[in-house]
């Protein structure tokens, strides 16, 4: 008889993945950051447009090149194991980004994003295979 997967252990693993992904993101290491997503990633933006991993990484690279500082935190609201063995969580992400304006001044943005993130277990560990941004606000 197969044992049921331990959702708490999986949540801990996903938290470790997030810590490593956040580090790569904040260090602007796109090569490392892209490895947290499967090659067949489907990323649905707030406008409903779906893009793949290559386009997402181009977009993230362009955004990170503009910012002086970046930071991001994620809070899990819900997690479940799907019938196909993937794991889905609903999470809120809060990001703070700043740019230098006229060398002396800094302008900051706060982005709050809520999304559905689905992870697939690969030979390299849990990787995000599907994202649907449910809401996004920029202040």
> Can you give the helix content as a percent range?
25-40%
Q: Mind telling me which CATH architecture this is?
A: Roll
DSSP E strands, number: 6
* Rg, Å, rounded: 16 Å
Instruction: Tell the overall outline.
Output: elongated
Tell me the structural class.
alpha+beta
Summary of the model, kept short:
This protein is about 30% helix and about 50% strand.
Describe the structure.
- The chain has three helices and six strands.
- With 139 residues, it is an alpha+beta fold.
- It has a single domain (7-138), classed as Nuclear Transport Factor 2, Chain: A (Roll).
- It has a six-stranded mixed beta sheet with strand order 2-1-6-5-4-3.
- The longest helix is centred in the first third of the chain and has 20 residues, at 7-26.
- The radius of gyration is 16 Å and the shape is elongated.
- The mean pLDDT is 93.
Topology:
Blueprint: H1 7-26, H2 30-34, E1 37-44, E2 50-51, H3 53-66, E3 69-81, E4 87-101, E5 105-122, E6 125-138
Parallel strand pairs: 1-6
Antiparallel strand pairs: 1-2, 3-4, 4-5, 5-6
